[in-house]
Amino acid sequence: MTEQEMIIDGLGVTPSFDVALEARRRVDFLVTYLRASGLSAYVLGISGGVDSLAAALLAQRAVEELRKAGYEAKIRGGSSPVRHSGEREGRPASFGHHRSG
Description:
- This protein is about 50% helix and about 15% strand.
- It has a three-stranded mixed beta sheet with strand order 1-2-3, covered by helices on one side.
- The chain is an alpha+beta fold.
Protein backbone atom coordinates (compact mmCIF):
# COMPACT_ATOMS: atom_id res chain seq x y z
CA MET A 1 0.00 0.00 0.00
CA THR A 2 1.37 3.42 -0.97
CA GLU A 3 1.60 6.28 1.52
CA GLN A 4 -1.23 8.08 -0.29
CA GLU A 5 -3.42 4.97 -0.09
CA MET A 6 -2.67 4.64 3.64
CA ILE A 7 -3.70 8.28 4.20
CA ILE A 8 -6.89 7.83 2.16
CA ASP A 9 -7.72 4.65 4.08
CA GLY A 10 -6.78 6.09 7.48
CA LEU A 11 -8.83 9.25 7.06
CA GLY A 12 -11.73 7.55 5.31
CA VAL A 13 -11.72 9.97 2.39
CA THR A 14 -12.35 9.37 -1.28
CA PRO A 15 -9.37 9.16 -3.62
CA SER A 16 -10.87 11.79 -5.94
CA PHE A 17 -12.41 15.21 -5.36
CA ASP A 18 -15.37 16.56 -7.31
CA VAL A 19 -15.27 20.31 -6.70
CA ALA A 20 -18.90 20.99 -7.65
CA LEU A 21 -20.19 18.11 -5.52
CA GLU A 22 -18.10 19.11 -2.50
CA ALA A 23 -19.13 22.78 -2.80
CA ARG A 24 -22.76 21.66 -2.95
CA ARG A 25 -22.33 19.47 0.16
CA ARG A 26 -20.82 22.38 2.09
CA VAL A 27 -23.52 24.84 1.06
CA ASP A 28 -26.19 22.29 2.03
CA PHE A 29 -24.48 21.89 5.41
CA LEU A 30 -24.38 25.66 5.97
CA VAL A 31 -28.05 26.06 5.03
CA THR A 32 -29.13 23.22 7.32
CA TYR A 33 -26.91 24.39 10.17
CA LEU A 34 -28.18 27.99 10.17
CA ARG A 35 -31.82 26.89 10.03
CA ALA A 36 -31.33 24.35 12.82
CA SER A 37 -29.54 26.91 15.01
CA GLY A 38 -32.47 29.32 14.92
CA LEU A 39 -30.03 32.13 14.20
CA SER A 40 -29.92 34.35 11.13
CA ALA A 41 -26.24 35.12 10.49
CA TYR A 42 -22.94 33.51 9.78
CA VAL A 43 -19.94 35.18 11.40
CA LEU A 44 -16.74 34.82 9.42
CA GLY A 45 -13.21 35.69 10.43
CA ILE A 46 -11.52 36.95 7.29
CA SER A 47 -7.75 36.88 6.88
CA GLY A 48 -7.61 37.74 3.21
CA GLY A 49 -6.28 34.35 2.19
CA VAL A 50 -7.67 31.77 -0.19
CA ASP A 51 -9.32 29.80 2.64
CA SER A 52 -11.19 32.92 3.76
CA LEU A 53 -12.30 33.58 0.20
CA ALA A 54 -13.58 30.03 -0.21
CA ALA A 55 -15.44 30.18 3.13
CA ALA A 56 -17.00 33.54 2.26
CA LEU A 57 -18.14 32.35 -1.17
CA LEU A 58 -19.72 29.21 0.26
CA ALA A 59 -21.46 31.22 2.98
CA GLN A 60 -22.71 33.70 0.38
CA ARG A 61 -24.22 30.87 -1.66
CA ALA A 62 -25.93 29.54 1.45
CA VAL A 63 -27.31 33.01 2.29
CA GLU A 64 -28.63 33.43 -1.26
CA GLU A 65 -30.41 30.06 -1.09
CA LEU A 66 -31.84 30.79 2.35
CA ARG A 67 -33.14 34.17 1.22
CA LYS A 68 -34.76 32.65 -1.87
CA ALA A 69 -36.56 30.27 0.48
CA GLY A 70 -37.82 33.21 2.57
CA TYR A 71 -35.35 32.82 5.44
CA GLU A 72 -33.74 36.04 6.64
CA ALA A 73 -30.01 35.34 6.55
CA LYS A 74 -26.87 37.47 6.46
CA ILE A 75 -23.11 37.35 6.83
CA ARG A 76 -21.05 39.27 9.33
CA GLY A 77 -17.34 39.27 8.83
CA GLY A 78 -14.31 40.89 10.28
CA SER A 79 -10.59 40.81 9.88
CA SER A 80 -7.98 40.93 12.56
CA PRO A 81 -4.33 41.91 12.42
CA VAL A 82 -2.85 39.47 9.99
CA ARG A 83 0.71 39.02 8.89
CA HIS A 84 0.92 39.19 5.11
CA SER A 85 3.93 38.76 2.87
CA GLY A 86 3.77 42.50 2.19
CA GLU A 87 4.53 43.20 5.83
CA ARG A 88 7.96 41.65 5.35
CA GLU A 89 8.49 44.24 2.65
CA GLY A 90 7.85 47.12 5.06
CA ARG A 91 4.08 47.38 4.64
CA PRO A 92 2.00 47.11 7.84
CA ALA A 93 -0.34 44.26 8.72
CA SER A 94 -3.93 44.86 7.71
CA PHE A 95 -6.71 45.57 10.13
CA GLY A 96 -10.29 46.36 9.37
CA HIS A 97 -13.78 45.05 9.17
CA HIS A 98 -16.25 44.20 6.50
CA ARG A 99 -19.95 43.61 6.66
CA SER A 100 -22.02 42.00 4.00
CA GLY A 101 -25.75 41.73 4.24
